[in-house]
Amino acid sequence: MAEPTASSVSNDCAVAAVRLSCLCKNFGSLSALADLDVQIGAGELFGFVGPDGAGKTTLLRILAGVKHSTSGEARIFDEDPRQARLRVGYLTQHFSLYSELSIDENLKYYAGVRNVSRANFEQRREALLQRVGLSEFRNRIAGHLSGGMRQKLALCCVLMSDPDLLLLDEPTTGLDPLSRGEVWQLIRELVTDGKTVVIATPHFDEGQRCSRVALMQGGRILAAGPPSELIKQLGSTRLEIRCDKLQAATRLLLKAQERPDIAFNEMNVYGDRVDLISVDPAVVQSDVQTMLSQAGMSSYTVSFAEPTLENVFIASLRARGFVEPECPPFPFAGASAQIAGEIAIEARQLGKRFGHFTAVDKVSIDIRHGEIFGLLGANGAGKTTTIQMLTGLIKPTTGEILVGEQCGKLGTSEFRRRLGYMSQKFTLYDDLTVAENLAFYAAAYSLDASLRQQRVEWVLSMCELSKLQHTVVGSLPWGLKQRIAFGASVLHQPSLLFLDEPTAGLDPVARRQLWRIIRDFAAHGCAVVVTTHFLDDAEYCHRLGLMIEGQLAAQGAPGEIKTAAGHQFSASLEEAFISIVLQTRTVPV
Amino acid sequence: MPKCRLLNHRLFGLIAKETMQILREKHLLFLLLFPPTVQLLLLGAALDPGVHNSNLGVVDYDQSAGSRGLISRLMESKLFRDDHMVSDEQQLNKQIGRGQLAVGVVIPSNFEQQLEERHQAKVRIILDGVDAYTAGIANVQLKQVISEFEPLEKNEHKAVVPSISILYNPDLRSSWYFIPGVLGAMLTLTSTLVSSSVLLREKELGTLEQLLLTPYETWEILLGKIAPIFALLMCDAGVAVLTGMLVFGVPFRGDVGLFALASALYVFVGIGLGMMLATVCRTERQSHLVSFFVNVPVMQLSGAVVPFETMPKLLQDIGTLDPLRYFTVIARSLMIKGAGFGALWPDLLALFMFALALFCFSLKQFRRQLS
Amino acid sequence: MRRIVVQAAKEWSEFRRDRLSLALAFLLPLATLLLFGSGVRLQAKHIPIVVRDLDKSSISKRLVDHLESSEVVAKARWEATDSSTAALCASDARAIITVPNGFGDDIEFGDPTKFSAQIDGSDITTAHVMKAVARQIGISASDAAKEGKDYEVEPDVQVRFNPDLKESLFIVPGVFGIVLFMYPALLAAVAAARESELGTVVNLYTSSLSAIEALMGKAAVYILVGLLEAALTLLSGRAIFGLTFASEPSLFVVATVIYLCAAVFFGLMVGTFARSQTVAVQATATGGFFPSLLLSGFVYPIANIPPQLSWLCLFVPARYYIDACRDAFLHGTGWTCAWIDPLVLAVFAAVFFAGAWWLMRPMQLDDAHA
C-alpha cells in the first residue's frame, strides 16, 4: 500500500514527500532522535507511533521547519523544510488556535499569513466549515468551543492554504470517541484527495489505520512498514481468555508463565479478560483449557484474534534486549483486605455549576474498597470536576457526598491522610530532586522513619532510579516523572486513591506495570478511581462510568456496558461508547 | 505529645521544600538580590533635591570691584557650577530660553555707585521657571546670599545673629534622607512581587491542588510559603542597611532589635499584599500589571521618595492608609535620629494592624481560590 | 505589506478581547497622571515648628505672630515646656526656634543678640527651607532693630516661563515621558512573551511572514494604542492642569510618535528575549520604568546626579522625550533648539528594533523550548 492512491497535485510524483537520512537531534547530552532513515511517498498516510518521549513531537517540529536538526538530513519535496513550509500544514497539539479569536478570525489569520488569495479564502472557508459542521458557529470565540470542535477548527485552519503535506501531532488525543471517529473520517478524505498525511500518535489502534507506520521509542525506530505486515511478521496469535472467576484464573496463568516450558511469550491482564500471545496457539489453548478445568472453573472462553500493533511494539522492544524490570511489590503495612466491598465514598445527585455553565449534573456513583472504578469521557466532560468534588477540593452546588467510616470526614486533615491523589497536571516539583520530592511527601503524611525508607526505596526501584535519586525532576522525561508522581501519591498507603490520567504518555510496558500496581492496591483494600481516555485502559477497571457533558451516561462493568449498548462482549469498548454517545447526544460536537 | 512532635515534623518538611524551591529558582533569587541593591545605590546617589551645579550666567554692566565681589560671593555659595559671563541681557534671555542657563544675574552699570551713595542697589535675577523645583529653591537661596552681601570694606556686624544648629544630619546629606525611604520602597516592591509570584506559580503549575489535598492545614501551607520568603527579605533589608552604612555613611543610631521588629512587620505587610494580589488575580501576568498599579501610589504617598510635606492635604490624608508611610517614618527616625520605642509605638502598632488584616484576608481567600 | 496588516489585525482582535489589559492600558496612564501631577509638590508648606518665646516682649511677640501667619511654617502640636529636642526626635516638629530672655531689650538698645534654631536634619527638604527661614528671621529682626537701613542689596526676581512656579507645568510633561514609555512597552513585552509562552509562536514561524513583518505587525497595534493614550493624556493634562502648547506642536507630535515606536520596540525586544511573561514584565520594569523614573530628570534634576552615574542618563530615552515635552509646553523654542531630541529618539527606536529583529530572525524554536 505504498503507492500513491490518487494523482498528486504537484508534478513531482516521483519525488518523495518526506525523506529522512540519518537524522539526529540532541538536546545537550540527551539524544532525542537518533539515526532516523525514513522515506514517505506522496499520498501516503504515515504514522509515527510511540509513547511520550519517543521523539515524535521533535521530529514533527524538524519537519515543519521550526527546529534545526543536529545532524543528518530532512527533505520535504526535496527541499529544506523551512523553504518548503508553505506547502506544509502543521497541526500542533495545543498551539494551533488563538483562543481569544473567533473561528472566522482564526481562519482569516491563517489564510493571510500564508499568502492565500482573497478569492481562494472565501471559497475554501465555506467548503471547510461546511465539511466539519462549524458553519453556524463562525463568530464564536475559539476558547469557548468544545475539544472536538477545536480540533476540527484547527484542521480547517491548517487546510486553508491547501498544503500538500500535513503534519498532525496527536490530532485525536483528548477527544471523545465520536469526535475521534469524525476526525479520522476527515483524514481519510484528505488522503483520498491526494494529500500526504503524517501523524504522530501514542495510540496503537490509530497506527493500525495508517498505510505505513514507524514504531518509535527513545528517539529510535523499532520497526517500520505496513501494519498488517508487521503483525504478520510476528507470526503469533492472540488468545483472549474470559472467565467468570477472572482473578483466580489470572493467578493461575501468572504462575504458569513462570514455567520454563511455557508456550506463550506475553500475557496482558485486562479488567474482563486475559490476553496471551503465542506462536503456537493450539498448544496454548489446550494447555489453558486443561489448567482451568483442573482448577475447577467451568465457564470460560478461549478465542483467537490477531495481535495488535501494541504487541508488535513490545515484541520489538524485547528483540532489542529490553527486559521487563522486576518490580517489587509495595510494602503494605497492616492488612486491610477485609474491608473489600464496603463503600468508601458515595456521591448522590452530585452537581456543580460555574456561573451559567453546568459542569456536572446529577451524578450518582459509589466507590467501594477493593475495586477499581474508571471514569471515562472526553476533555471537558466533567470528570476532573467530579473528582475535585469527591476529594473535597471544591464544594458541590447540589447533591451530597457520603464518606465511609474508614476514611473519616470530608474536608478534614484526617480524611486527607487517607486520601491519595495524582493530578493531571503535575504532582512533582520540577526544581527539586527525586529524593527531595519523595522526602517532602513522606513528611507531609508524617510517615515514620523506617516506613519512609522502605517506601521511598520502593518508588525508586519501581522507576529504576536508585542511582538517579539526586537528579532534578525537571530534567527527567515525562514517562519517568509520571511514574514517580504515582509513587509519591501512594507513599502513605491511602485507603482511597484518585488517579487522574495516570497512564497518559507511558509506553505499553510501563502502562501495564502501573496497572499491576494499581490492581495490587485494590487487592489490599484500597478504593481506586481512575480517569482516562485510553479506552484499552478502561478494560482494566472493575466498573466504569461514562460521562458526557456533565452527566453519567452509562455505569457498570465493561461487559455490562457493552451489552447495554447492544454489542457483543467481544466488541471493543470504543464501539460501545460511540453507540452510547450517539444515543445521548444533544448538541453537535 | 506525640502528635505535637508529628506536627512539627511535617511543617518542617514543608518549610524545607519551600526553601529549596526558592533557592533553586535562579531568577527569583536574582530578583531578590540584584535589582533592590542596584536601585538603592542608584537612588541614594542620584536623588538630590538641592540646588547646586546649576549654570549661572552673569551680565555685569558695572565691571567694578563691588560687582565682582557680588559675583564671587555668589560662586562661593556653591549654588552654581560655573559662571558664564554674558555680553548683554538679550543674550542672557536667549540662553535661558534655550535651557543653557538656569539662572541669570544682571548687575546694572551703576551698581557700586548706588551702593556707596545710597547704600542700596538693585540687581535683576532671571530664573528659568520650567524647572520649577530648582527655580523655587534658587529663588530663596539667592535672596539670602544677596541679602547677606556686603562690600568688603565695611565690617559691620549684624545686630541679630541666628545660631543655627542642624541636628541629626548636620551636613544635610541627601543620601541619609533617601536611603531609609528607599529601603522601604524596595522592600514593598520585592516582597509583593516575590510572594505573588510564588503563590501564583504553584497555582498555575497545578501542584497547588496536590498540596491542598495533603493533610496540611491552610495556615501551615501559607506559613511554609512565607517562611523562606520572609527570611530572604530580612536578609535583603540587612544588606540594604549595610550598603547604606558602608557606601553612603548613613548612621544607625537606634536599637537594632527594634529595627528588626519593624522590618519584620513591614515584610509581613509586603508579603500580605503579595498574597492578596495572588488570590485576586488569576494569572501571574495580571498580578504583575496590577502590582505595578498598586506599587506606584504606595511609593508616592508614603513620602519615601518625594517629601511628605510637599503633598497637598488630600493626598496626605489618603497616605495614612499607606503602610509604607509608617515604615518610612520608623526607619528614618530610628536610623538617623535614634528614636526609641516610646516615640515609635504608634507607627509600629499601625504596621502590626496592617499585617494582621492582610494576612487574615489572604488566609480566608486562599482555599476559596480553586472554585 | 498585506501580511503586516493581517498580523496587526490579529493582534488587535486578541487585545481588544482581553478586557483587563484594555482597561489598564487606558486607565493606568490617566491614574498615573493624576497621581503625579497633583501629588508632587515641590514647595514645602506648613512645616510644623515649635517656637519657644522665653522673652515675651512685644518684639518677640511680633516675631512669633509673623511666623505663625506665614504659610511656610505652622505651629506644631507640642507643649513647648522643656529644652529637650524630643519634639524633633518624635517627628512632631521639624524645628525648634527659641527666643532667649532679653531678646527684645537687646534689640531696642542696639546690642548684638542671638536666637537659636534647632533644625531636624533628617528631612533635608524641610531642613533647607528652615535654614532659609531662620536666616530670614535674623535679617528681618536686624532690620527692625536698625533705624536706617545700611548696605542692602535688593533682588528683583523675574521668573520666566512659569511665573507662578506651578509645579504641575513642570511635572506633567515629565509624566508624559513616564507613562508613554511604560505602558506601551509593557503591553508589547507581554504580548511578545505570551506568544512564546503559549507556543502559538510556532504558527508565526511556519507562516510566510518574515521576522520584520511579524515585528511590525505586532508593533503597529501597540503604537496605535500608545497614540490613543497620548491623546488621552494630553487632553486630560489640558483639562485638569491647564497645560497648553507654548508654540507650534509639530516637534511634539513627531517626537511623540518616534518615542512610542522606541517604547514598543523596546518592549518587543524584551518580550522576544524573555521566555515567560513574568520575566518580560520584570525586565521591562527594571530596564525601562525605573531608569525613566529616576534618571530622566522627571523630578530630580539631572545636573544633581554625580558624574559617576550621570553617564547612564545618556541612555534613557525618556530623558530626551521629556526635554522635548518641556520645550513644547514651556520653552516653546521648537525645532531650532530641540531638534536633537527626536533625532536621538529615532536612534533609540532603530537600535531597539534591530535588537528585536536579531532575536526573532531565526524563526525557530530554540532548544531550551524542547
Give keywords.
heterotrimer, A: 589 residues, alpha/beta, Rossmann fold, Alpha-Beta Plaits, 3 domains, 6-stranded mixed β-sheet, 19 helices, disordered N terminus, C: 370 residues, abc type-2 transporter like fold, 2 domains
Layout of helices and strands:
The complex is a heterotrimer of chains A (589), B (371) and C (370).
Chain A: E1 18-27, E2 30-40, E3 45-49, H1 56-64, E4 71-76, E5 88-91, H2 103-113, H3 118-132, H4 147-159, E6 165-169, H5 177-192, E7 196-201, H6 204-207, E8 212-217, E9 220-225, H7 227-234, E10 237-243, H8 246-257, E11 264-269, E12 274-278, H9 281-294, E13 300-305, H10 309-319, E14 343-354, E15 357-368, E16 372-376, H11 383-391, E17 398-403, H12 413-418, E18 419-422, H13 434-444, H14 449-462, H15 478-490, E19 496-500, H16 508-523, E20 527-532, H17 535-538, E21 543-548, E22 551-556, H18 558-564, H19 573-584
Helix pairs in contact in A: 2-4, 3-4, 7-10, 13-15, 14-15
Chain B: H1 2-24, H2 26-46, E1 54-60, H3 65-76, E2 80-85, H4 89-97, E3 103-107, H5 111-118, E4 120-128, H6 132-147, E5 160-167, H7 174-205, H8 207-212, H9 218-248, H10 256-280, H11 284-302, H12 313-318, H13 323-337, H14 341-368
Parallel strand pairs in B: 1-2, 1-3
Antiparallel strand pairs in B: 3-4
Chain C: H1 2-17, H2 19-39, E1 47-53, H3 58-69, E2 73-75, H4 86-89, E3 95-99, H5 103-109, E4 113-120, H6 124-145, E5 152-160, H7 167-198, H8 201-205, H9 211-241, H10 250-273, H11 277-295, H12 307-310, H13 317-331, H14 335-338, H15 340-360
Parallel strand pairs in C: 1-2, 1-3
Antiparallel strand pairs in C: 3-4
